[in-house]
Amino acid sequence: MITTKSQQDGSYDKFGVSTPGALETDEPWISRFTDVLRKFWSLGFIAFGGPQAHIAILRDELVVKAEWIGEEQFTELFAIGQGLPGPTSTQLVVSCATSRAGPVGGVVALLMWNMPGLIVQTTCGVLVTSFIDPDDPPFYLAGLAPAAIALLFKAAYGFSGQLDKLGCTMALVSCIVSVIIAGDNVIDKGVCQWVYPLLLVLGSVFCLIDSKRENPFGTTYTKAKPGWDSDSDLTFKRIGIPLWVGAFIFLLWAAVLAGCLIIRAATTGEKGGYLALFETMFRVGSIIFGGGQVVLPMLYGEVVDTGWISSSTFYQGFALAQSLPGPLFNFSSFVGGAYLGVGGALIAYLGLFGPGVILIFAMMPFWSKMRHIDWFKAVLVGLANTAIGFVFAACFLMYQNAVTSAASSTAFAVAGVMAMVYKYPAPACIFGGGVVGALLNLAELGQKPY
């Protein structure tokens, strides 16, 4: 929890908003950095269920429990991550930790969030070991995904509380579009690469226009409370990235991407090596919208059709990634490890994660300085309304994939009750549901598919 100190002539609330006359002071950086270490060292071990379930875990840990940031700020950062290419949940980890302890805190949180899954993926990729059968996962993993989905439902319920009627309508539209794209056998799943960004842009434009009307449909614009930097630049100082540095970071990403495209054009006849691996991963990471699920079709043609790894190895690695905690983008280390060993795993990891992480660092200072400007606030509201619809779509889609039997339904119910009724933290809920699912699967109870 933020414990910004007050002075005799003023004070700060728990989110760092200064009251009139306050003199700005803050906790020492080392104390805030220690908070990041304490919070994130364990999350990388329990972050099962895919990117949308990760959002639920992060909201529960950082907003509800630790009270690092408010619901509104968390949703804004989530919406910004949705609007950028790359792994949304990882970008949210970086942005939340950076707003607490600066870029060093963001980088450390990133590594702690990714490390457990990264190590296993790299090891299995190098050894090309098929530990996980996609159609028959080990009994001890059977309850983890349903438990994580229960937390996703909790997060969706929490997000819905901040929506007005206009926000609900916008979320419904983006939810319907997402469900139809994912659930239709005719529609090419690759269209999400332009449909998701288009929905976010349209939502932002609509809210921006609506906010200018004399009697807007939405009420969020007028009800929004002053936030972190309305009277104080405390959060901007905590982020520690000047605006010009943010602009430079963005240009750095553009330059590396341009270099990758030049390399691709110049080496048309050459199909392998470390440079080609990095170019492929960085280019794909720069155009992936929609999170980890989009990685599969995007990467398949790049690494299988070129002969870097076999189709069976590719699917084994992706199944393994889905069974492990952490972001699905860790799959890149499996591909790189299977192709070029440990060095290839690190190159592939840096290439695929690089664009999304670079861009979220570039956006952070602009977000903290501009989030109270009226037009930018309206844009953020539009992004958030649309992005919340994606969360609800994930609830429907992931539930039908993860909850397929009486045993998995029981694990889902146990974790949900632990989270919603007894208010246990996310790790305990996932562990509790996971244990129930494992025991039922071990005893072969409730195994008949629905």
From TrEMBL:
One GO term describing the cellular component: plasma membrane
Keyword Membrane in annotation: yes
Entry-linked Pfam families: Chromate_transp
Keywords annotated in UniProt: Cell membrane, Membrane, Transmembrane, Transmembrane helix
GO MF: chromate transmembrane transporter activity
Localisation per UniProt entry: Cell membrane
TM region(s), chain numbering: 107-132, 138-159, 166-187, 243-266, 338-363, 375-399, 424-443
Membrane topology, as annotated: Multi-pass membrane protein
NCBIfam families on file: 2A51
Family per similarity comment: Belongs to the chromate ion transporter (CHR) (TC 2.A.51) family.
The name this protein goes by in its record: Chromate transporter
